[in-house]
Specification:
- It is a single chain.
- This protein has 75 residues and is α+β, with helices and mostly antiparallel strands.
- It has one domain (8-64).
- It is built from 2 helices and 3 strands, in the order βααββ.
- It has helices at 17-20, 25-38; strands at 8-14, 46-51, 58-64.
- Strands 1-3-2 form a 3-stranded antiparallel sheet, with helices on one face.
- Strand 2 and strand 3 (58-64) form a beta hairpin.
- The two termini are 16 Å apart.
Length: 75
């Protein structure tokens, strides 16, 4: 879709410090999947990564705002 200026959506989900050790990476990825579905990214390409380069672990989601059907995700 050439009319869309910002073609990507960047989301960061912070994990509370008291929950970091309780949540394995597989659970963090499950959270990312549930979040993406909840906000309507089912038909969009997206990727999630988790890391801890600050005081708390967090998940980054980068999503294509243009769906597989050419529709633009409205933020």
């Amino acid at each position: 879709n050439s009319r869309c200026r910002n073609k990507f959506l960047r989301i960061e989900i912070g994990i509370a410090p008291q929950d970091e050790r309780k949540l394995p990476v597989s659970e963090l990825m499950r959270i990312a999947h549930l979040f993406a579905k909840r906000i309507g990214l089912d038909n969009h390409q997206w990727v999630a990564v988790t890391h801890k380069d600050t005081d708390n672990r967090h998940i980054h989601i980068i999503a294509n705002r243009i769906s597989l059907y050419g529709e633009v995700y409205d933020t």
